Description:
This protein is an all-alpha fold. The chain has one domain (60-158, 169-269): Cytochrome c-like domain (Cytochrome Bc1 Complex, Chain D, domain 2), CATH 1.10.760.10. It has twelve helices and two strands.
Amino acid sequence: MKTLKYLAATGLLAAAAAAVAAESSSVISEQAGAKNSTMTSDVAVQAPVPAPKQKTALSPEEWERVLAAMPKAEVMNGFAVHSKQFCASCHGKEGIADTPNWPDVAGQPYAVTVKALLDYRDGRRKGTPASDLMSAAAAKLTDQQIADVAALYEYLPGRNAKKSAPTTPAPELVNSGDASRYITPCAACHGIDARGNNNGLVPVLHGQQATVLAAALKDYRSGARQSDMLGEMQVFSRKLTDAEIEQLANWYAAQPGRVGKKTTERDRKQ
Length: 270
């Protein structure tokens, strides 16, 4: 199995501390004969948010061994896992979420879903309300169930998979990055289309919900999400402004999702 080169997930960087502001007192002297008056301003100081206690992220070598040891997946069994384990209640009947708070899982590469569920189950991804909920759900899953449901999601087409891409130009960070800030182009790992790069080992961003993408980037930036094996996403996201995060999230969300194997097979029969 090829060594992972561009896997975008989180490493062991500590969470960023909250900013602390303070104002000093100033003494204003009046003209001759006037009384001195002192003006003070108290500013509430927000305590730093402690980093969530998470297990160490897998190294690329550990991940290769884990992935190779997964049992053979059965796509059709994945439907039962998706339904009986209540995945569909948040992620939609066919992996397309009905609300903007939950990610679409349809169209994601097999390895991406396997890693996400193992990270949730094994304590490498927690500390936020969403990740804590997923950790509780994944705790009930066996390796076989994880393999089966991951194969199912790869089989299903992503959101708007068969629609044409809009003509809106991509933000510069997508294809060019920003050399002045040492930001690699998003497309270097995530691909220039919804297929992704690196043999399906990085998430497909095309067609994903904007709120989900923005939340992920902000969690990387704050350190709340630490499952990135190489720590690259934390490094890049720390350099992004809120406006840039929203721009990237909205652009990717407007693109057609990944054409799943189910769509491909249907097209061959027509």
